[in-house]
Write a structure and sequence with these properties.
The longest helix has 18 residues, at 2-19. This protein has a single domain, classed as Beta Barrel (Porin), CATH 2.40.160. Strand 1 and strand 2 form a beta hairpin. Strands 1, 2, 3, 4, 5, 6, 7, 8 and 9 form a nine-stranded antiparallel β-sheet that branches. The chain has one helix at residues 2-19, and strands at 33-46, 49-56, 59-63, 68-82, 89-103, 110-127, 133-149, 154-170, 176-195. The protein is mainly beta. Helices cover 9% and strands 66% of the residues.
Length: 196
């Protein structure tokens, strides 16, 4: 009985996915141009140490084939580190970057994607005791995500951090390098997509 129910559920899932094809005009195809307004928030706490990060990242992309989109992004990242020992530190970065995306089923209402991106950021770090200093950094990241079309031109999307390498260097100081692997649910980004 369990096998029959599982088989029926699998057939329904395939039928539902097939019904979502582009007859409705939804989804992506070669030559489509889109813009996304994405925001993200992450928070991490270890004992009395806490870090909050807020990101705004508008992007523009173009489908060079039915499954592959390339694009540019700009953004703003604000980080606040609460440190009871050394004092709080605020960092503001302006970011520019490029990315490539592979969509598994771009012509469907619902599609998974993988995004490889490179970002460069520059800004200021402001320690609690004063003495602001300039910081520069870069990031290379692979992010899985999902998009869902609500109408012919509007979709919502979500992505999470999975694999990344970043390096931030304060002016005249040592760089901080970090490598992350794994699904990081503290780095979820949500966006609204408009397809032209």
């Amino acid at each position: 009985m369990k096998k029959v129910l599982f088989s029926a559920a699998a057939l329904l899932a395939v039928a539902f996915a097939s019904a979502q094809e582009t007859e409705t005009g939804k989804g992506f195809k070669k030559g489509d141009f889109y813009m996304t307004g994405a925001v993200g928030f992450s928070s991490e706490k270890t004992g009395d140490f806490k870090t909050n990060e807020f990101t705004i990242a508008p992007t523009a992309g173009y489908f060079v084939s039915n499954n592959i989109a390339v694009g540019l992004n700009v953004g703003y990242v604000s980080t606040k580190e609460e440190n009871p020992v050394d004092g709080d530190v605020d960092t503001d970065l302006f970011v520019i970057g490029a990315f490539g995306r592979y969509y598994a089923t771009p012509a469907n209402d619902f599609s998974f994607f993988g995004q490889l991106g490179f970002n460069y950021g520059t800004g200021k770090t402001k320690p609690e005791g004063g003495g602001d200093f300039k910081v520069d950094g870069f990031e290379v990241a692979l992010r899985p995500g999902v998009s869902y079309f609500l109408s012919k031109n509007v979709a919502i999307e979500a992505s999470i951090g999975a694999l990344s390498y970043s390096s931030i260097e304060p002016d005249g100081g040592e760089s901080t390098d970090s490598f992350e692997i794994g699904v990081n649910l503290t780095e979820v980004q949500f966006g609204v997509v408009y397809k032209f």
